[in-house]
């Protein structure tokens, strides 16, 4: 596998490759894109467009950031930089739909973490505001073939900062390249985070560093109170939105939080509802139904228990990694691994996400494990490309290799979900983008460390 | 169970928990069925499989004969002896059972975090043979694991190597004859950088400087203690009578064993400087470090590690969860291997352990290890690090028949464990596991129905009034707590 190269050492592409490599090495990690050329042709590749069956010996043309042509009978435009991808495969870049990308650098160090605001209701806060374009996580993640992500505030995960609040803020869809957030942005507000309240009979008391048991009735009362509060927020937002429409909002003091919720209650901005247990999912679906919210389920540990409900209400699910232990001791040991296949078979639209930063590069691995446990390979590929794009309203721009779409494209030496596959070229917004990153830099540096004379 | 005087709702909650625990026990009895070994290990022939021996290459369409729990024959084609149980391995891949050099499963407690030297405590004494994670890791192909104390202390508790003999009592878990160990820890964890209890003062050590002195102080004491005993023993041997023996010190005894080379040191660490610090301290007091655990900056000082002859047991691709993990790279295992260090990939986590084969595979991508080198990271190398490589770690005649069978090349994300054998007995069988599920579900449902019926019967005592639901409930589907178990 490692010997399969795009071109032999003496091919005319050699100089080009050298120049590209030089560009890649020299390009700073933050932007990592060369500005020219703007026309590329990837030729002789097996192209998995995900919009039809794979194309053998195909050509994909990129111009001005977009896919201009894809197929077998495609002319290579004059002036295009040609990448001979014989023996290589082309896919849409992977889309990780729940991350804390740019919001968290070192999860144990509070000063590097901007994932979660204090307080329970922060619909006005926006991930894009706090995304650090020069985060080391971005090039590391990119090297695994992920070209775009959702940066999701208050989304917990390995990088969670503890409490998460109910309305956690707005998730932003970003390209994993760009000198500034403006260059990275796909959609500033792609979803509103709703951490569904839980009936918590067990709490952790930090003052005594011990678990505390709470009577069910008390926990249920607290839960009901939170749901009522949430209900109240949305009712107020609806009135506010109506006032906005009628132009009578000037009679009120401007309320930024209600203003942020207006697109939610109008059904324009989906709510990304984090819930895991079947009971919570059922309650959340009923709530969103009643409030006429566009719901996307995130997490969904026990989504399989409510798959018919999810299908009938057309609630898509962004699944957390399948490489997780089952919630109950008497669950089958592979409970989480078989769930994607079960949901897909029931007709539920699924995306698979990392819910993390440092483990984002395990996205393909997780997805492959779902295939090993019954998910069809085609559906698996869609779960990390087309489906998340569609779920977050970006289906017309991303997720497949079709004419007119944004050219987020990866060229690999094999199955992008497999552990040993290498990404050879990566395009974001039609620009050949560096695969260099902190990890590879350190590897090179210490591979070249001279043998210490003192070592004995 | 005292249920009187408890509100009905809470009572049903308790009953539900009770019911769950019954299920829990039940699930054991089911799985234990499959795992309870007969008195004599069967004669098993695995036929027509891709046998990845790790020690002498891969045999296509190979066979393995197992007798008395040991590998009796390995080769191209072996005739099945009369009465042998034959496992058809066509299309399957057999590797030596996976060995996890850093695990916290099967333990009722992990950290005695109140003191910075806790060498008196021993993981072997808190082994929990009913921990479901034993079964889950077995289903991930793990056959042996190094059960370590936590990393809260500079010198932690004593450690034990176990075989994942699911269904056996705690006394049958330890790997017979394996050298006992002790956990050390350096860096952020023992200095408690990321943990604090409000209102409690910081514990010494709070810096890497203090960690060094904590270890030096402990070994100074241990050296004196050893001398006291050596003197006493010498005098007894010389025939002196009515000597009063020195008082035993349970904290120092394991450290004396370290000084005498009778106990392995497995040290948690991250940064290059702290790793070299411990090597210096070890040299000063004349003991060996057997393995560095995590050792995420090991690649920066690979030559020093190789020169010290110390093993490195690391993660595949974890990074950035704390400052000392910010320079972690997935090339760590490969780079150290290239510089002559014996490297293993470990889990430190019950879930991670279920796919260590996949974690090993990443070293082919990151650093270009060969297929065999990658496989060694989770088989032969951890066996060498734990000093059990004469018994396990490769597929060779005479070794324990600890084997894992996959449906795919194990260094792929598409490989699923089909069977796991320990001592020549099948402890995990995917087919049987899947076949049992319907039965377990049926049993669960029967129990749930019984419970519902029991709940519907009038109580002997008037049930207390239920608390009124607060305000109009916004969610019409709000469930009772027992609803959780309801079918959906």
- What order do the SSEs of chain B take from the amino end to the carboxyl end, as H and E? HEEEEEEHEEEHHEHEHEHEHHHEEEH
Query: What is the rounded Rg of chain A?
Result: 23 Å
What percent of residues of chain B are in strands? Answer: 15-25%
Looking at CATH, the homologous superfamily of the largest domain in chain A is Metal-dependent hydrolases
CATH-defined superfamily of the largest domain in chain B = Metal-dependent hydrolases
CATH level 1 class label of the largest domain in chain A? Alpha Beta
Residues in helix, % of chain A: 25-40%
Q: In terms of per-residue confidence, which ranges of chain B show pLDDT below 50 for 5 or more consecutive residues?
A: 1-36, 462-488
Mean pLDDT of chain B equals 89
Q: What is the percentage of strand-forming residues of chain A? A: 15-25%
Our count of domains of chain A comes out at 2
Report the average pLDDT across residues of chain A.
90
Number of distinct beta strands of chain B: 16
The biggest sheet of chain B, with number of strands, parallel, antiparallel or mixed sense and barrel status, is: 8 strands, mixed
Q: Major sheet of chain A, described briefly?
A: 8 strands, mixed
- Given the structure, what is the number of helices of chain A? 13
CATH-defined topology of the largest domain in chain A: TIM Barrel
Most extensive chain interface and residues per partner? A-B, 76 and 80 residues
Shape by Cα distribution of chain A = globular
Distance between the first and last residues' Cα of chain A: 38 Å
Tally of structural domains of chain B:
2
């Amino acid at each position: 596998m490692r010997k399969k190269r795009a071109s032999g050492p003496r091919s005319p592409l050699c100089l080009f490759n050298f120049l590209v490599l030089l560009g890649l090495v020299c390009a700073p990690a933050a932007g990592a894109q060369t500005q020219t050329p703007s026309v590329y042709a990837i030729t002789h590749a097996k192209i998995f467009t995900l919009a039809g069956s794979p194309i053998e010996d195909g050509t994909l043309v990129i111009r001005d950031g977009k896919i201009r042509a894809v197929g077998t009978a495609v002319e290579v435009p004059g002036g295009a930089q040609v990448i001979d991808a014989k023996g290589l495969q082309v896919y849409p870049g992977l889309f990780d739909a729940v991350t804390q990308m740019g919001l968290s650098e070192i999860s144990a160090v509070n000063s590097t973490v901007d994932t979660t605001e204090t307080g329970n209701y922060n619909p006005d806060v926006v991930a894009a505001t706090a995304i650090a374009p020069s985060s080391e996580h971005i090039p590391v993640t990119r090297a695994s073939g992920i070209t775009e992500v959702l940066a999701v505030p208050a989304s917990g995960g390995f990088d969670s900062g503890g409490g998460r609040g109910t309305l956690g803020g707005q998730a932003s869809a970003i390209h994993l390249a760009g000198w500034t957030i403006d260059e990275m942005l796909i959609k500033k507000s792609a979803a509103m985070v709703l951490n569904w309240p839980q009936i918590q009979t067990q709490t952790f008391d930090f003052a005594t560093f011990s678990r505390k048991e709470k009577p069910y009735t008390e926990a249920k009362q607290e839960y009901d109170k939170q749901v009522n509060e949430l209900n109240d927020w949305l009712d107020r937002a609806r009135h506010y939105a109506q006032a906005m429409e009628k132009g009578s909002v000037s009679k009120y003091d401007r309320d930024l939080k209600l203003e942020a919720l207006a697109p939610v209650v109008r059904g324009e901005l989906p709510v990304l509802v984090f819930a895991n247990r079947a009971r919570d999912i059922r309650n959340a679906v009923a709530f969103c139904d009643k409030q006429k919210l566009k719901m996307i389920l995130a997490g969904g540990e026990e989504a399989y228990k409510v798959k018919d409900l999810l299908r009938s209400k057309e609630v898509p699910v962004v699944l957390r990694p399948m490489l997780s232990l089952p919630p109950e001791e008497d669950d089958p040991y592979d409970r989480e691994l078989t769930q994607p296949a079960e949901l897909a078979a029931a007709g539920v639209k699924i995306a698979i996400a990392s819910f993390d930063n440092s483990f984002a590069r395990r996205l393909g691995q997780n997805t492959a494990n779902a295939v090993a446990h019954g998910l069809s390979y085609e559906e698996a590929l869609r779960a990390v490309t087309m489906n998340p794009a569609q779920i977050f309203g970006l289906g017309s721009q991303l997720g497949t290799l079709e004419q007119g779409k944004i050219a987020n494209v990866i060229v690999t030496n094999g199955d992008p979900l497999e552990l040993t596959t290498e990404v050879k070229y990566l395009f974001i917004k039609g620009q050949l983008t560096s695969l260099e990153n902190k990890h590879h830099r350190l590897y090179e540096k210490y591979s070249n460390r001279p043998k210490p004379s003192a070592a004995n | 169970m005292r249920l009187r005087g408890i509100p009905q709702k809470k009572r049903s909650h308790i009953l539900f928990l009770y019911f769950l625990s019954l299920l829990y026990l039940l699930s054991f009895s089911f799985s234990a069925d499959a795992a309870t070994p007969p008195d004599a290990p069967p004669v098993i022939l695995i036929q027509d499989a891709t046998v990845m021996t790790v020690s002498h290459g891969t045999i296509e369409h190979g066979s393995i004969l197992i007798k008395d729990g040991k590998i009796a024959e390995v080769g191209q084609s072996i005739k099945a002896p009369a009465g042998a149980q034959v496992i058809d391995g066509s299309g399957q891949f057999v590797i030596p059972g996976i060995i996890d050099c850093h695990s916290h499963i099967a333990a009722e407690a992990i950290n005695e975090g109140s003191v910075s030297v806790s060498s008196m405590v021993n993981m072997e004494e808190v082994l929990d043979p009913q921990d479901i994670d034993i079964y889950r890791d077995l289903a991930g192909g793990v056959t042996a694991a190094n059960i370590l104390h936590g990393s809260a202390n500079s010198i932690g508790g004593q450690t034990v190597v176990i075989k994942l003999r699911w269904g056996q009592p705690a006394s049958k878990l330890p790997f017979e004859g394996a050298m006992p160990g002790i956990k050390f820890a350096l860096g952020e964890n023992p200095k408690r950088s990321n943990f604090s209890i409000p209102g409690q003062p910081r514990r010494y050590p709070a810096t890497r400087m203090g960690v060094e002195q904590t270890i030096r102080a402990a070994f100074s004491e241990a050296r004196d203690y050893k001398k006291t005993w050596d003197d006493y023993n010498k005098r007894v041997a010389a025939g002196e009578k009515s000597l009063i023996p020195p008082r035993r010190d349970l904290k120092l005894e394991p450290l004396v064993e370290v000084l005498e080379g009778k106990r392995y040191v497995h040290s948690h660490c991250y940064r290059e400087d702290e790793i070299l610090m411990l090597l210096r301290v070890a040299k000063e007091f004349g003991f060996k470090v057997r393995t560095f655990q995590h050792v995420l900056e090991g690649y920066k000082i690979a030559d020093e590690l190789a020169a010290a002859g110390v093993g490195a047991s690391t993660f595949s691709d974890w990074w950035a969860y704390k400052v000392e993990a910010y320079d972690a790279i997935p090339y760590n295992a490969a780079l150290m291997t290239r510089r002559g260090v014996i490297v293993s990939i470990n889990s430190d986590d019950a879930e991670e352990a279920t796919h260590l084969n996949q974690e090993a595979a990443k070293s082919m991508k990151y650093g270009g290890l060969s297929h065999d080198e990658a496989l060694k990271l989770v088989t032969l190398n951890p066996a060498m690090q734990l000093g059990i490589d004469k018994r396990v770690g490769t597929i060779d005649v005479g070794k324990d028949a600890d084997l894992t069978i996959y449906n795919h090349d194990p260094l792929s994300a598409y490989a699923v464990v089909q069977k796991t054998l320990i001592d020549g007995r099948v402890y995990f069988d995917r087919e049987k596991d899947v076949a049992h599920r319907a039965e377990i579900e049926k049993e669960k449902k029967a129990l749930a129905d019984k419970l519902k019926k029991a709940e519907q019967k009038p109580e002997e005592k008037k049930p207390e009034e239920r608390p009124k639901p607060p305000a109009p409930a916004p969610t019409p589907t709000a469930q009772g707590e027992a609803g959780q178990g309801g079918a959906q």
